[in-house]
Structures are given as C-alpha cells and as structure tokens.
Specification:
Largest interface: A-B, 56 and 57 residues
Order of helices and strands of chain A: EEHEEEHHHHH
CATH architecture of the largest domain in chain A: Orthogonal Bundle
Helix content of chain A: 25-40%
Helix content of chain B: 25-40%
Strand order of the largest sheet of chain B: 16-17-14-24-21-22-23
Structural class of chain B: alpha+beta
Oligomer: heterodimer
CATH superfamily of the largest domain in chain A: [2Fe-2S]-binding domain
Strand content of chain A: 5-15%
Radius of gyration of chain A: 16 Å
Number of domains of chain A: 2
Bound molecules: FE2/S2 (inorganic) cluster
CATH class of the largest domain in chain A: Mainly Alpha
Structural class of chain A: alpha+beta
CATH class of the largest domain in chain B: Alpha Beta
Number of strands of chain A: 5
Number of domains of chain B: 3
Strand order of the largest sheet of chain A: 2-1-5-3-4
CATH topology of the largest domain in chain B: Aldehyde Oxidoreductase, domain 4
Distance between the termini of chain A: 50 Å
Radius of gyration of chain B: 28 Å
Largest sheet of chain A: 5 strands, mixed
Chain lengths: ~180, ~775
C-alpha cells in the first residue's frame, strides 16, 4: 500500500504517497508534476529519465522511490537554482544554468525528448571534469553505466559543442568571481 | 502512389487578388483575419460552411499590437519547421519573425491539415497566404496615405511612401477586416480506393499566384533564426504529449499477444488485494489494464500478461530467412515500372562489360526515443478529443472517427511536442491514439495509453526489408549505356490502427505494392528500366489480422533504392578502373550536381584514384583505411556524402572516422538549422549502415529493446564536415531527411576501398564484415 514519503526535490522537501517500489520517475512526474525527466525505455537503456541524486546521474525509471530518502534530487527544473547556489547568488527569474544556456545557444534539441537527460549528464560531467576533451565527452555519454545516452534525432555533435561552450562559461566564470 | 507533392502546385494562374472586407469597427483592438474561401476540413467538403461560423480557422491574424498569429495543420517534427514557417511569412509580409507566433497541428485551431513532413507544400501555402495579405495591406495603406501602391515600401511592418508612414498595426486598428483566399483540397477520410487506405492527407492547397518577392530580396530567410520551442524545452516548460493529464483520467497499459498473429483464449485475472484500483479491459483481442495510478497500471498489466492465454502462431519467415524468402516469392507484375524494357535490354545485350549485383537490407525501425503515448477523451455525446503527437493530425482524426464510428466533425485532435517519429505517423495511422480512443469509449473516462518500450519495438510498424537486383552495361569507353533494376519488398503503407485491428473495429485498408522513389541524377545514361514490386505484409493472413506491418520511414523508398543504385555505380567505377567521383561526373550534365560534388570532394580533400585502395588487404589484425562516396537528388535538392572509414579485420568492426556531407537545397532558409539536420542525419545514416536490424522469429519481433536494436552512440560518431550551397533561383528543397540516405552507399564504397570486397548488404555489422573477410580469404 502507498506510504507517505518525504523527498527533497530541487531544494524543496515534498511529501508524496507512493508504494516503496514505485520508480522515482512516476513519482516525480505524476505526484510532483516535475516533468523534466521522461519515460524513454523504463529499463535504464536510454537516459531520458536521468536526474541528479546527490550530484550523481541516476536513471529514475528503475530507481525505487524508497531509496531516495535523505537524498537531494535535482531535475532540469532545478538546474538554475543549483547554479545560483554554487555561485552563492539568488535565483533570478531569467537565471539559467550555463548548460541550459549552452543548449539554447547551440540549438541542441531537435525533437528534444532526450535532452533533459543529456543536460543532466552534462552537469554531472562538468562537475567531475570542468574542461573535458571531445574524447572525454564522447566517453562520458557512451561508456558510463548503466547505458549510453541515446538520441535518435542524432544531436550528438551539437551536444559536444554545447558541453564545451558550457565548460568555457563555467570555468571563466569561476576565475572572474 | 506518390508521397510528396511537387515543389510548386500545378494550379492554374489566377489573375484576381482577393479583396479585404470590413466586418465591422471596434472600439478597442483590431484584427485582419485571413481565412479560406472553401470550408475548413469537414466531412462534407462540398458543402460550403459560411465564413462567419469558423472564425478560428484563419490562416493568419494580424493584430493591432503588431503581433501576427499563423496557423498550420502541419506540426514540428524536430527538423525546424516551427522556425522556417515564421521566417517565410516574415519575408513575404515584411515583418520581423519575432512578431509571429505559430499554432501547429490542432485540428480545431488550424485550417489546412497536411503532412507534417510535407514542408515544401506547407511553405508554399504560407508563402502565398503571406503574399495575399501583403497585397491587401498595401492597398489599405495606399488608401490611407493617398499614394499609389507602387510608391509604397514596407520594412518591419511599417509602410512608407513620399515621407509618410503607417504601420500594419495602425492599419488594422479599431477594425475587423477579413481577407478570404482561394484554396482547394478535400478533408482526410478513410478511403478504401486509396492505396494507403486514406485520402485527403495532403490537406488544403492555397490557390492562385499572388505577386511574391524574389528570393534574392529575402532578409529573414537565409539567416539562422533560432528554433522557437528550444528555450522552453531546455527549461522544462514545454508541455509534452506525455505530460497531459485530465481530471478523472485512467492510465492504461496494453497486454499484447505473444506473437503478431495470436488471438485471445482467456484474459488473465487481477489479484485485487495487490492491485485494488486496477481493472482489466477486454475487447476481442485487445487487452488492457487501467488504473488511476500509472505504476499500478504497469505492475498490474505485467501480472495480467503472465496469466493471459493466447493461441500460437508461426506465420513469419524469420529474419535470417527474409531475403531468401523475398527472392523466391512468386512475384507477378511490378506495382510500378519506369523506362523502356526493350531499349534497356537491347543496350545491355550490346554492352562491352556488364556489372550486376543483388543488394539487400533487413527490416529496420523508426525507433523514436519515446514509445507511443496518447490521451483520449471520448464523451457520452459521441464527441472526442484526442491528444497526439502524430505527423498527420487530420488523417488520424479520420481514422479515429472511422474506428469509433463517430462523425469526423466531432473529433478534435490536439497536437503536442514529443519524440521524433521519422515518418511512422505520416499517413495518420498507428500509435497509442487508437488504443486510448477505444478504451475511453468503452470506459466513459479519459484514458492515457503509454506503450512500453517492448510494445513499441514489437508492435509498431517497421520499415520493411528488401532485395534489389540491379545491372548495368558499359561501352568500350567505360560509359554506362543502360541500367536495369528490380526492387522487391513488402508494402510500406500500413497505417491501420493496431488497437482497432485487435479490437475487431473498423480501420483503414491499405493495398499492397511499392513505388519507384529514385530521382535520376545521371542524364547521360541513355537507357534505364526500373521496377518496384511490393508484396503484402509478412504474416498478412495472421488470425489476429495484424502481422508484420510495414510503413514508410524517413526518405521513404529512396533511402532503400538509392543504396543499390549508388553501390552499383561504385562497383562499375571500380570495374572501369576509374575514380568514383570522376566516373559519376562523366554520367551527368546537371550543373547543380557537378558543383556540389566538386565542393564536397574539395572539403573532404578527396584525391582522385580508382578503388580499391592500393593498400587494401584483408589480413587479420591490421587496420584498413578506405573512402567512398554517394550522391542523391531529392525534392529539388542535391546531396553528397563522402565517408572515410577504418576496418579492423580481427574484430570486423568499422569506425567511420570522417564524414563530409554536401547539400544544395535551393534557397537555404536557415543555414544553422540545415547544418543541424545534416549533422544529425549523418548520425542516423551511419547508424543504419552499421547497426540497425530488426530481428524476428516465426511469430514475433525479437529485437525489443535498445540492447537488441542498436543505434549509433556518441562515441561512434565521426568528425562530420558540412558543405552548403544556396541558390536564389531554384526555390526551396526538402532540407532535412536526405542526409541519412547518402550514408550507407558511401560507407559501403569505403569498405570496398579498404578491403577490395563489395558489400551487398547493410548493416555492416562485425559478424557480417568478419564473414565477408573470411570468404575472401578462403577463396584466395
Ligand atoms: S527511461 Fe530511464 S533510462 Fe530510459
Ligand atoms: S533530440 Fe530527439 S531524441 Fe534526442
């Protein structure tokens, strides 16, 4: 039967009702109306449902919601706040995470369905490696478990450019502040 | 049996320009509405609907704040139309594109219908709509400024002449103006006489020839205007198809039969202690589980599936026997033939040298990154609203009305963004919409159906496998004198609603057949005979009625038929001992083709020499390098691909290291969006060339997830260079889909260059490549 659980999503404590084994994806989408993560495969094979959990990419389609207690979940809706927080600044109305701005500047999305997961992967990569090479970007999107991030529209070249653009902004921003 | 309309409509020129009528004066606001002279799409297309009853069906509205609303029944499919349409309208009207917002797809809020992929016809329509509006605004301004029209100029929505000026916004202020423009066309409907079971899929066509600006004078077209929906998608603000929820809505999951031919013996039962809110719904062979809670619907459907009993069925040849099956099928007359049989045969029989081959490809999938999802609300009064991401909303509207046996006029389709479909909804069929509508009609509640990944791979239509026999003859000067080709495949027009087939409800009835899709770049080849044969779906006689449904996929038909044609050209060039580019250029006088080939070859730093590479060998453990090219003309555009690859004989692995793609698409609307489409199309094309294959046994598709159906990953993507040529005097061309179709033959040619072996099948998987290399070693 459904339990009451407290989730920390995008910096806010939220109360939800769900059975323990319900995948996080359905709770985020249907209970919390947080629709950035989307269903692509339901078996950790594509990356469309990716979210950050304590800073690491997690596939929400196979992660039981009960495993999330005490952890910080971030979806693309929470990326502006994540960035503002890292700068010690307040989130303004127009604030975007540099990864989001780079995705706009490089016109990455075609249909865009996979791109929430692609941006989550970029944020995780840039936290671990602020200036990744093309080979390192390709490696992160392809060889990191549990599966490659797949884009059927084929936007990989634009993603690489956008990650590099975000990297430039984030590292130069770090130096100047 | 054509899928795309010609570039410009063949409608006779009309001398008149429609006049503005003033419906009234307003105290506040003001608008000019551009509407249709014939009714919007209703089931009684012949019966005129008075204009006043359809105020929302306008093409274009110009408001007194300067904002412009444009409506099109075509939807964004991920290739940038939502940006191109405002660009085109902006240039014809003389306004900035930022002032234009677009409503796409919704059948109750757009006038015309049509294929979403039919960009050229959509662009031509909106260009004329804007041109008519521009003429009307000029006449209005001429009255206000007391100047003849030919002394007026327009910039940024402001009309000026003789030192005076007035804006479009001021022209319409406090008025309600109507402009009625002539159109033709018929409503979409299920039509047993039509080859794909539906007619009216083209939507409406704007008639007449209003004066239009020369493309050389365009200011917005030709610039890299950003795609409007991107910021919302990046910020998580877009409402996607999967996000729509209604009060009282049920989540449904379908429980599909174990094979494509099985019928239901007994539906499984639900353990109500485990799934208290779930319910099993059965209509003939359509089995579904619904619940207000999505996860309960998923878990309960799995439990029900494990106890549901179905008949067995084994009516498919199996994917490993597919091409043998197609070769031995008792083909009768071709469904389409072009060119003279006798002249081609005579030229072949007198040729000095003949080159012939049989090429093949297995079934492949559109494989969107999201499975089908839809929501339907069928109400007690027989009206229905269906939320969908179809690429032919009016066609699907007709399908839903037909399946539910309700009136077309009572069905509203609302379009939302979702994962790219690559042609699988182009004919207005298939998808979760049918399931959702049937279940909602049965349950009297809104029902949202999400196919799971396995459902989608196993039950969506596929792009059928094929075999082509092709031969050419060369004269003493190594010029091709004739080509003969016979293409064999399965029907690729099955837009039936799978939920309706299973539920035993009415749906469209497509006819078997195939078509010739090649467009011919080689005008110096004097004789050719092309034939296309299309048998019914595999398993078309399945008791369930479903079988292995075939549908078009991106660059339909031409993607398939270009591979053998261009591969044969490469084989013939090798047989002639000629460089493959020089060999092709010797067979065409088309200046656009020649210029693009030369520009692309230059970008790729192509060094002329015959294939194979003099270093080509097939020894284990050593990496072999090769390069190859391919070209294609399509829809007034020309495309060239040049691949460089590395083959590792010990593993059979191919890595494409560099791909150079060139495009001449007439007037380039948006160089950046075109570049995006070129880069991403190459990714899909390489994926098809190296990896993609639907596997099936005698009853079902067995490649039902991403580890069974592999697509290209980021690490497998090469460096990609793009070359673009824009022309002001050639109109627009299709600018997205051909990119994928120039990859396979270029890669296959590069494989021959590297190894000396002509591959005659895609995908070039490690297993197939290892087999090819082994055969040669054994033979030598
Ligand atoms: S939906 Fe979770 S990885 Fe595909
Ligand atoms: S942008 Fe369409 S799947 Fe990635």
């Amino acid at each position: 039967m459904a339990d009451q659980l407290i989730l920390n999503v995008n910096g806010q404590e939220r109360s939800v009702h769900a059975t323990a084994e319900t995948p996080l994806l359905y709770v985020l989408r249907n209970e919390l109306h947080c629709t950035g993560p989307r269903y692509g495969c339901g078996m950790a094979q594509c990356g469309a449902c990716a979210v950050l959990v304590d800073g690491a990419e997690v596939r929400s389609c196979i992660t039981p919601v009960s495993a999330m207690s005490g952890k910080k979940i971030v979806t693309i809706e929470g990326l502006p706040a994540l960035w503002a927080q890292s700068k010690g600044a307040a989130v303004g109305a127009g604030t975007l995470h540099p990864v989001q701005q780079a995705w706009i500047d490089e016109q990455v999305p075609q249909c865009g369905y996979c791109q929430s997961g692609m941006m989550i992967a970029a944020v995780e990569l840039l936290a671990a490696n602020p200036t990744p090479s093309v080979a390192q970007i390709k490696d992160a999107y392809t060889n990191k478990p549990p599966s490659p991030h797949l884009c059927r529209c084929g936007t990989y070249a634009a993603i690489i450019r956008a990650v590099q653009r975000a990297s430039t902004v984030m590292t130069s921003d770090g130096r100047s502040s | 049996m054509k899928i795309m309309l010609p570039v410009s409509s063949t409608v006779p020129s009309q001398e008149f320009l429609p006049q503005l009528t003033r419906r009234g004066f307003l105290k506040t606001g003001g608008v000019l509405m551009v509407s249709l002279a014939t009714p919007r799409l209703t089931s009684q297309a012949s019966q005129a609907v008075p204009q006043r009853r359809m105020p929302i069906a306008s093409w274009l509205e110009l408001h007194d704040d300067g904002s412009i609303l444009v409506r099109t029944g075509r939807a964004e499919i991920g290739t940038g139309m939502s940006g191109f349409y405002p660009q085109i309208v902006a240039d014809e009207l003389g306004v900035r594109p930022e002032t234009i917002s677009l409503i796409m797809g919704d059948t109750d809020r757009t006038p015309d219908g049509g294929f979403s992929a039919g960009f050229l016809t959509g662009a031509e329509n909106l260009r004329k709509v804007a041109a008519y509006t521009y003429q009307a605004l000029l006449r209005l301004a001429s009255e206000k400024l007391h100047l003849p029209v030919d002394q007026l100029t327009v910039s940024d929505g402001v009309v000026s002449g003789d030192g005076r000026k007035i804006s479009y916004a001021e022209l319409v202020r406090n008025q309600q103006l109507d402009l009625t423009i002539p159109v033709s066309g018929e409503a979409a409907r299920v039509d047993p006489k039509s080859w794909n079971g539906l007619s009216g899929l083209d939507g409406l066509v704007v008639l007449g020839n209003p004066p239009m600006r020369p493309m050389s004078g365009y200011k917005v077209v030709g610039t890299s205007y950003p795609m409007p929906g991107i910021p919302d998608k990046v910020m998580g603000r877009t409402q996607w198809m999967c996000d729509v929820a209604l009060p009282n809505m049920l989540h449904a999951r379908v429980v599909r039969p174990p094979t494509l031919g099985s019928t239901l013996i007994a539906a499984g039962t639900l353990d109500k202690t485990k799934f208290p809110n779930a319910q099993v719904v059965v209509k003939k062979n359509l089995v579904a589980v619904v619940s207000p809670n999505e996860w309960e619907a998923i878990s309960a459907s799995r439990a029900v599936a494990s106890t549901t009993k179905w008949t067995e069925w084994a009516g498919l040849p199996g994917s490993d026997k597919l091409t043998g099956f197609l070769r031995s099928y008792p083909w009768k007359a071709p469904s389409e033939g072009k060119g003279s049989i006798e002249e081609t045969a005579a030229a072949l029989s007198t040729s000095v040298k003949q080159v012939s081959a049989i090429y093949e490809q297995p079934f492949i999938k559109h494989a969107p990154i999201s499975p089908f999802v839809a929501l339907a609300d069928v109400r007690a009064d027989g009206s229905a609203t269906v939320w969908s991401h179809s690429a032919n909303l009016q066609g699907l509207r007709a399908q839903i009305a037909n399946t539910l046996s309700i009136s077309f006029d009572k069905v509203v389709m609302r379009w939302l963004d979702h994962a790219g479909q690559f042609g699988r909804t182009t004919f207005g069929g298939d998808g979760a919409e049918g399931d959702a509508a049937i279940l909602s009609q049965m349950l009297h509640r809104p029902v949202r159906v999400q196919w799971m990944l396995q459902d989608d791979f196993a039950w969506s239509a596929s792009s059928p496998g094929w075999v082509e026999e092709i031969a050419c003859g060369l004269d003493a000067n190594n010029r091709i004198t004739a080509i003969k080709s016979s293409f064999y495949s399965c029907q690729s027009n099955d837009a039936r609603i799978v939920g309706a087939i299973l539920a035993g409800m009415p749906t469209s009835e497509p006819k078997p057949g195939y078509w010739i899709a090649t467009e011919w770049p080689y005008d110096r080849i004097p004789h050719r005979r092309e034939e296309a044969y299309g048998r019914p779906n595999l398993g078309s006689d399945a008791p369930s009625g479903v079988g292995m449904r075939g549908l078009i996929m991106r660059t339909p038909g031409q993607r398939q038929q270009n591979f053998p044609l261009e591969s044969l050209l490469n084989e013939a060039a090798a047989a002639a001992g000629m460089d493959p580019i020089a060999f092709r250029l010797a067979h065409t006088s088309d200046q656009r083709v020649i210029e693009l080939v030369q520009a692309t070859a230059k970008a790729a730093e192509w060094q002329p020499r015959p294939s194979p590479n003099p270093m080509a060998r097939s020894e284990d453990g050593k990496q072999l390098h090769g390069r190859g090219m391919c070209l294609m003309i399509r829809q007034n555009g020309c495309w060239v691909g040049i691949a460089e690859i590395v083959v590792t004989p010990s593993t059979g692995m191919i890595q494409v290291t560099q791909f150079t793609i060139g495009a001449d698409v007439g007037k380039i609307i948006n160089p950046r969006q075109l570049e995006r489409c070129m880069l991403s199309g190459v990714v899909m094309g390489i994926s098809e060339a190296l990896k993609e294959e639907v596997t099936f046994d005698t009853g079902k598709i067995t490649s039902t997830n991403w580890s069974g159906y592999k697509i290209l990953t980021m690490a497998e993507m090469p460096e990609i260079k793009t070359v673009q040529i824009s022309r002001d005097d050639k109109g627009y061309a299709g600018g997205s889909e051909p990119a994928n179709a120039v990859c396979p033959a270029a890669i296959a040619a590069a494989f021959h260059d590297a190894t000396g072996i002509h591959p005659r099948r895609i995908p070039l998987t490690p297993a197939y490549v290892s087999g090819l290399l082994k055969t040669v070693r054994t033979a030598s």
